[in-house]
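hey so i finaly got around to running the thing on Kin of IRRE-like protein 2 from Biomphalaria glabrata. pasting the sequence first so u can double check i didnt mess up the copy paste, my clipboard has been acting weird all day
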Amino acid sequence: MAECWGWYGMRVPWRISWMFMLLAVDTLTADLDSTESPFMADPFAPLRKSVTKEAPTPRYLGRYSGKLYPPPSRDMTTRLPEFLPDGPRPFIPDPSFLPGDQDIIANQGDVAVLPCTVQHLGTRQVSWNKVGGEHFLSIGTEVWVQDANLEVVHYTWPAGVGEWNLVFREVRAQDAGVYECQIISTEKIIWKVKLTVVDKPPHKPEIRIEGKSFVESGQSVYLRCNTTEGDRIPDDVDWFKDGDKIEAKEYPNVVITKFRSRDTMSLVSELVISPGTSNDSGTYICRSSSELIASVEVNVLVADSSNVKRGTGVSHTQTGSGYNAGSPLQNPKIYFTGNVLLVCLSVLVSMCINRLNT
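ok and heres what it spat out for the 3d tokens, dont ask me to read them lol
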């Protein structure tokens, strides 16, 4: 019985069966080593292989079983962009505000300008907002609120200086407050401006005429009438000459223009006569719709051809019609005295000649 269980004691069929089993196991082991199957004898062989022979791929970077993989190779590091210049980077100063007026007082209804001057802004933006407000009023030159009364006026100056002024076209009482001009950046850089709105002082009703009272003949007669009724602009003005209203039909050589000024709440009318003649001399009156009256006396000087230059003798200029009292034909006394002196002089000359002959 012992011989039956030993190798040599086995019977031939059993020996053949064991040989085929060993051959099959050897073949299966060779196939598993070549395909790296998970059923191989050493399951940690791939891990040891990746650690010792080659660098890990990004998929396996990190921690595994409490241990770190080797660091990535240099080829996997990020390179600097090729467009960066060589050498040190140029120095760019930080943006800053330039000094300016921080307390603005404006009359209600007038234009109010809040200044903001920035130097070295670069690619940053400038914004305006009101202290206590919920939103930006503007960013850059764009207004971010629905208010047609607001605008941002931008000016560019040398040395990297720019102005970003917040303008109120017609400032109102509710516009009063503190405003911030801010440079949008990581650091909060703010310039504060206080706006105070006061009531516009009342204007007294007034009317006045400007122009020359003496004009040479042939030159233009120019008169300017400026009138205001205080807080409102007058409706109209009328012109009169010597008590008669100036109409286009009766005075075709007179041109009258009118325009209104909202800044001064006044109505301005201009009267032009070109060319001026002696018939244009007289008293001119400007009357507003509120019965305000102003007048001026205009004299058109007509020069005679025998006039003496001004400052060198007696002037023969006449105003309107009349005669010159200095003419010898118009003054008999001067004419008679001149003749008597001429006769006496002739007698003396003749007596002297006779005496010399004798």
